[in-house]
Design brief:
A hairpin with a 2-residue loop joins strand 1 (about 165-170) and strand 2. Helices cover about 60% and strands about 15% of the residues. The chain has helices at about 10-20, 20-60, 70-85, 85-105, 105-115, 120-160, 265-270, 280-290, 295-305, 310-325, 330-360, 365-389, and strands spanning about 165-170, 170-180, 180-190, 195-205, 210-225, 230-240, 250-260. The two termini are about 35 Å apart. The protein has a seven-stranded antiparallel sheet. Helix 2 (about 20-60) crosses helix 3 (about 70-85). With about 400 residues, the protein is an alpha+beta fold.
Length: about 400
């Protein structure tokens, strides 16, 4: 279109609005929002790297084998998880920055004068927020899971001998305990819901000096107590070269085996919320239930990750509800502060709902989806009230 630009319309939105370019206007707002988001994301990335570097130096200051390259590696591995946690904050600040700049340049006034409503102007930021949320769930989440697991393994290797590990597979659950001299691999077909008792359990002990198994124990159950396992109906084989282990096998109604594990250590090894990719969560939940563990915590987290795009949309709507106003009305600082506080409030309500869901106080779907839906409806109500009175 040939657009006559007069002295009072010398700004991009004026030209676009006069031309009636619906899609062009949406792309313009989307580009402005994406630029604000990327700029803020880069700033927060630099801040997190700086802060986490100091934290890693403090954490490993007594480890002589951890030098600058190792500290840099640990910092970079820990950054994706931190960025994933503060993503809602970045989205709400990007929305505030977008609409404050549009208001100062009078582009919002021109948009409304051209017949575009506030909700129409929000279509582009909401679309970008949905794209960011989708990419967060499908791409960033697996990256965070991989880097978090690698960070944990490096941290354990630097801080200890890595004497205890835990994993769950289709064959049951596996534990490893021991010290630099002996390592014991423990396999169980299932466990009690609190991980206190293992059933159909096998202990296989390896000696690091000779490099082969020295002892095997099978038991109907094994109960973890402070400093030891108490095995019931156990059969013990001493795997000594040159002898017949079966001929010398021993039977015990109760057998005590020393342990370096604790119940809290086993529970914490089930996987933090960020250590399992959203693509692997359904299979992991099935394995947990098959092994006898409660999978409720992981079910809540899985649903909350699926709801993340909607949660980011609610952050955009909340920020816009307080900042889509002309600067001549005044009170811009109060409006920005209110938007940030309401956004933080919704964020904490969401986390509180997730905790209630994990503890069984709320249904899984309600705990994960209610806060973003409520936040979206609340923001839409404020926007419609401001637009139509």
């Amino acid at each position: 279109y040939a657009v006559p630009v007069h002295c009072g319309t010398a700004n991009p939105v004026a030209a676009i609005a006069i031309a009636g370019g619906h899609m062009i206007l949406h792309f313009y707002f989307a580009r402005r929002f994406a630029k604000s988001f990327l700029a803020l994301a880069f700033i927060f990335f630099c801040l997190i790297v700086l802060i986490d570097s100091v934290e890693q130096i403090r954490k490993f200051r007594d480890q002589t084998d951890v030098g600058l390259p190792e500290l840099v590696q640990l910092t970079l591995l820990n950054v994706p998880q931190a960025m994933n946690e503060i993503l809602p904050l970045i989205v709400i600040l990007a929305t505030i920055l977008l609409f404050i700049n549009l208001a100062r340049s009078s582009e919002l006034v021109v948009t409304r004068a051209a017949g575009r409503s506030a909700l129409s102007a929000l279509m582009a930021p909401v679309g970008v927020a949905l794209i960011i949320g989708g990419m967060t769930v499908t791409l960033l989440n697996p990256i965070v899971a991989a880097t978090t697991n690698y960070y944990s393994s490096l941290e354990d290797a630097y801080k200890s001998d890595g004497s205890a590990t835990f994993s769950i597979s289709d064959e049951g659950l596996w534990l490893r305990q021991g010290d630099p001299q002996e390592q014991t691999v423990i396999h169980a077909s299932r466990t009690s819901g609190e991980a206190l008792i293992l059933y159909e359990v096998t202990f296989l002990t390896f000696n690091a000096a000779i490099g082969h198994p020295v002892r095997r124990v099978e038991a109907s159950s094994a109960q973890l107590k402070p400093g030891n396992w108490e095995l019931r109906k156990a059969k013990l084989w001493q795997l000594v070269p040159g002898t017949n282990p079966e001929a010398n096998a021993e039977f015990h109604d109760t057998l005590v085996v020393s342990s370096s594990l604790t119940l809290d250590r086993i529970r914490n090894s089930l996987g933090t919320r960020a250590s399992i990719s959203v693509w692997d969560l359904p299979r992991y939940i099935t394995q947990l239930e098959r092994a006898g563990f409660s999978s409720r915590r992981h079910q809540v987290w899985y649903q909350s990750e699926l709801a993340r795009p909607l949660f980011l949309v609610s952050m955009v709507l909340i920020a816009s509800a307080f900042t889509m106003r002309h600067t001549r009305f005044g009170g811009t600082g109060i409006a920005v502060l209110t938007a940030v506080m309401v956004g933080f409030g919704l964020y904490f309500v969401r986390n509180f709902a997730l905790i209630l869901g994990e503890n069984g106080e709320l249904p899984v779907l309600l705990a994960a989806w209610a806060p973003p839906i409520a936040g979206t409806l609340l923001a839409l109500g404020l926007l419609l009230h401001a637009e139509d009175g």
